[in-house]
Write a structure and sequence with these properties.
Keywords: NAD, Oxidoreductase
GO molecular function, one term: NAD binding
Strand content: 5-15%
Protein name: D-2-hydroxyacid dehydrogenase family protein
Structural class: alpha/beta
Shape: globular
Family: Belongs to the D-isomer specific 2-hydroxyacid dehydrogenase family.
CATH architecture of the largest domain: 3-Layer(aba) Sandwich
Distance between the termini: 5 Å
Mean pLDDT: 96
Pfam families: 2-Hacid_dh (PF00389), 2-Hacid_dh_C (PF02826)
Low-confidence stretches: 326-331
Strand order of the largest sheet: 8-7-6-9-10-11-12
Length: 331
Amino acid sequence: MRIVIPDDYQNVIRTLDCFGKLSGHAVSVLHELPPATLEQLAASFADADALVLTRERTRIDAALLDRLPNLKLISQTGKVSSHLDLAACTARGIAVTEGRGSPVAPAELAWALILNARRQLVPAIDAFRQGQWQVNLGQALAGQTLGIWGYGKIGQRLARYAQAFDMPVLVWGSDNSRAAAKADGHAAAASREAFFAEADIVSLNLRLSDQTRHGVTFDDLSHMKPDALLVNVSRAELIAPGALLQALDAGRPGYAAVDVYEEEPLLDPAHPLLRHPRVLSTPHLGYVEKSGYELYFGDAFDNVLAFFDGVPKNVANPQALALQRLNPVRP
């Protein structure tokens, strides 16, 4: 079968141990950065029997699917999200399979951002490389309150990290999230306003959905302390457009550390977040880590092989299996 894997930005997919699972198949791995036009994507995917998507990097919509008559399967690393029109795939008899996620790498990156932002390591290192010595004064984490909005797998790991650093934890979110936090010995904020006002560091750890999109407003951020830190390794769209920069310029919060952006990949060095003196920015590295890639792509490749062996698994749209195209799978 012909398999296309787009968006291998770092040119690492072929180096993964799990890549050997695709031995014997015709595999094309593409490294180009977007944006790509509909025509370019259609040309790159024209002969594909299967696509293996890296998280949400490529948008798959009806217009593109109509240009891909050979496509039978999309194997998604992680879970299907809004980048993929699942209904359009189903209507065209294109099966979509899902894999697993892992909280380990994004939680570790969030903690690295918290440590670096609080100790102000990047400006200190940059100055040191320019011949300057001890140019700033950072803050220790012990005693600071870590606010966690979204007490899921990542939020729970961050709470455990906080305990090791002698930090009290304050949780906001659904009733279930707050109840779970209390059961684990943490505090639940009395209100949304109190959550933002009382936390020294706020970490956003929510899934992006219609309910959470643009849910964090300028008003929320304006309740934060002047020296507080806002951390976002989840999705940029959790915050209302422009609200973070507006709040930073207004002085509350004093700092931000972000790994996610409304437009990705972000290739403009003049972007305000990259140039802001009180923002620590990383290029969406939360899940970009070897063990995570082995998990994500290992699952995706297993799903491809199972599908073409006639025993599909982890299918997000089983209705598509009944509509599979009559064209036989090419060897």
